[in-house]
Write a structure and sequence with these properties.
The chain is of the alpha+beta class and 523 residues long. Helix content is 28%, strand content 21%. The chain has three domains: 14-231, 2-Layer Sandwich (Heat Shock Protein 90), CATH 3.30.565; 255-401, no CATH class; 418-522, no CATH class. The protein is built from 14 helices and 16 strands. The strands form three sheets. The chain has an eight-stranded mixed sheet. A five-stranded mixed sheet has the order 9-10-13-11-12. The longest helix has 41 residues, at 377-417. It is globular.
Length: 523
């Protein structure tokens, strides 16, 4: 009789397989999200993330690189028994919640696979209420772990340095260390919110803080507390409707213009009594951002930094109250001629789509890292029909009309507070305005709104905030503007072209820039 195992070989080559697994789709945020997901599913009420960094070995690089990431919580913990939950927690492919459609997790590939994308060492301490701390370790540099499997958990007290990252009698701490697959530049661009290099950055992990506050906003609203390196994580609602535990609770609320459910059939393969009606709902909300955020044409309000308005040019999708997508939805369309071509103005409206896991596959694409989960092609058509008119009203009517109101108010204030500002060269500006120019210039170069804004900011950078805003409003309200200025050098006149407007600056430091001569020129 031939044994079933006779002549068989291993299904994969251990070391090569693990190296291939490291080349996965996780990014830094998504990887940390896997740790947080586990904490939430363990009913944690407090979740602590700490990031440790060290100077780069590259002497020309001033900022630091990550050496360790630690996530601790006060969840119910894991038992340390042979083949128990803790023993299996670092095992690839294992999940106590595999194919679970009632929570955040589903596939059970998260914590270890996310960790080894960047680091080679994964350690876990865990404690259930009334029991001892237990410890387990998986190390890619340890050949025994690769070839012979994961050793039993051992009883081991939590190091004192992590004692404040858990509950008093239960919790879990996960440690990723020996980072070898993250480069300096990527780390810098994904962590340092204010653009400064560490140690000069005021908030070196501000973007991570923001990612957690947005992705897990509903958990925060329900009372879960997060911190990053000891700093409280505030909630962030991309609909700008909910200010609970928000960093800016006194800001105006957005205007809700639509809220309704889309009934959608669930995955035909999901055949249980719970989903006997074969339908589920995708909940859709559309808002227009508060007017105070969009006072200045093409940009927003100067006083509203930290609201992340510039990244609000897409849609937020939540699966079981956890954000899994925040971006432009590609091919959101009825057909080739009726589609949403995302543009700058899309930041002034917001859309949130929420669904439950029973729509995995039928309504929304599936992946095992809970990132970039998009609506299916059929659902995109329905979503397009649902939101396209609200989008059009916002970017074609609501926002441009409000800009005009603000600019008119600025012009009136300008006249009252600085009567010489709009009128000094009124005759020249009037003549220039009446000069006929082609309505459709040939071979016109497309306007880059960001570049044009930078031009106007540069021209007015030496002025106060209010006066600068007044001048920029004046530039945009007419095709030709004359402005007195002063700068060193022999140049008398400087002309700037911006978005169809021409701005002529006189250098009053020049010999021809005297008040008497300018008055004669101005009539």
């Amino acid at each position: 009789m031939i044994m079933a195992s006779e002549g068989r070989i291993p299904a994969f080559e251990d070391e090569h397989a693990f190296e291939s697994m490291r080349d996965n789709a996780f990014d830094l945020y998504g990887a940390i999200g896997e740790l947080i997901d586990n904490s939430i599913q363990a009913d944690a009420k407090k979740i602590y993330v700490t990031v440790e960094d060290v100077p780069s070995e590259n002497k020309r690089v001033k900022y630091k690189i990550i050496s360790k990431i630690v996530c601790g919580d006060d969840g119910y913990g894991m038992d340390g028994d042979d083949k128990g939950v803790l023993h299996n927690s670092v095992r690839f492919g294992y999940s106590s919640r595999y194919n679970d459609r009632k929570g955040i997790g589903r596939y059970g590939v998260g914590m270890t696979q996310a960790g080894i994308k960047f680091a080679t060492n994964v350690e876990v301490y865990s404690k259930k209420s009334g029991k001892d701390w237990h410890y387990i370790n998986f190390n890619l540099m340890n050949r025994d772990d690769i070839h012979f499997g994961i050793a039993l958990p051992i009883q081991k007290d939590l190091p004192q340095e992590y004692i404040n990252l858990t509950g008093k009698d239960h919790g879990t701490v996960v440690i990723w260390s020996n980072f070898d697959k993250i480069n300096d530049h990527d780390l810098h661009s994904t962590t340092h919110q204010d653009g400064f290099e560490a140690p000069f950055s005021l908030d070196p992990y501000g973007n991570l803080n923001h990612f957690i506050g947005r992705t897990y906003r509903k958990s925060i609203w329900q009372g879960v507390k997060f911190s990053v390196n000891g700093k409280e994580v505030f909630s962030f609602d991309p609909l700008y409707l909910n200010k609970k535990y928000n960093q800016f609770p006194d800001d105006d609320l957005a205007v809700k213009v639509f809220e309704d459910d889309i009934d959608w059939p669930i995955d035909p393969k999901l055949d249980t009594d719970e989903f006997a009606n074969r339908m589920s709902k995708a909940h859709v909300i559309v808002t227009y951002l508060p007017k105070q955020y969009r006072k200045i044409r093409n940009r927003g309000g100067n006083d509203f930094k930290g609201r992340y308005i510039d990244e609000n040019e897409g849609v937020s999708i939540l699966r079981y109250s956890r954000e899994v997508f925040y971006d432009h939805i590609p091919y959101l369309q009825e057909n080739r001629n009726q589609k949403i071509g995302w543009e700058f103005k899309d930041r002034w409206w917001s859309c949130e789509i929420s669904f439950n896991p029973e729509l995995d596959g039928s309504g929304f694409s599936i992946n095992n890292i809970k990132r970039k989960i998009e609506p299916t092609k059929e659902l995109k058509v329905t979503l397009f029909r649902t939101i396209v008119e609200f989008r059009r009203r916002c970017i074609d009517e609501e926002v441009p009309n409000y800009w005009k109101e603000v600019e008119a108010a600025h012009s009136k204030q300008e006249e009252e507070k600085h009567p010489d500002l709009p009128q000094k060269h009124a005759l020249v500006e009037k003549i220039a305005k009446e000069v006929k120019i082609p309505e459709k210039p040939i071979d016109q170069i497309p306007i880059n709104l960001q570049v044009e804004e930078q031009k106007l900011e540069y021209i007015t950078h030496h002025l106060g905030e209010i006066e600068g805003a007044q001048w920029r409003a004046k530039f945009k309200s007419q095709p030709f503007t004359v402005m007195d200025d002063r700068w060193p050098g022999k140049e008398f006149i400087q002309i700037t072209y911006s978005g169809g407007q021409s701005i002529l600056q006189y250098n009053s430091n020049h010999i021809f820039g005297s008040v008497e001569i300018l008055n004669k020129i101005s009539g």
